[in-house]
Amino acid sequence: MIIQRRDLKKYGLQSLFIPEQFAVILLDDLAKDYGERNRELREGDYLEPYNPEVDVWLYPKSVEALNPSEHRGLACYSFPIWQPFEMKRHTWATAITDEHILKFAYRPSANAVNHLADDNNFAEAAERTARDFAENLYITLTPDAERQRQAALTEASKLAQQRA
Known about the structure:
It is built from 4 helices and 5 strands; from the N terminus they run E-H-H-E-E-E-E-H-H.
């Protein structure tokens, strides 16, 4: 479990409770974290040569790849991050204030098991377990956070009407 605070002013955004703005922050975080790792792999001085089929980190680069959904009234995203030789790591994220993100990151591992073998369903079971866990979360926002959410949704609705 990870709780992160983001300075939205730096991005010119108002609230993580506005799904489009939340997605901007998540995609920027992923590009910084995993895009930077990929650049380091390409440019680093390593004993083994860089092999993009094995070494590169794969991560969402679009809102659709973040798998947007709603969970008990809160906008949330669930997405994988992985390297080709690893099982996918699954992350589930939602806003808990205008500037705070709650994330659950799942990193499955299997000792002495070839998790990529055709006859093994460990990766599927791990993904299903992560999804089931997230679907059974109950998040109660503080009264202040709920006011922030309502204000953000009202503002987002007004902006959408102005664009239409």
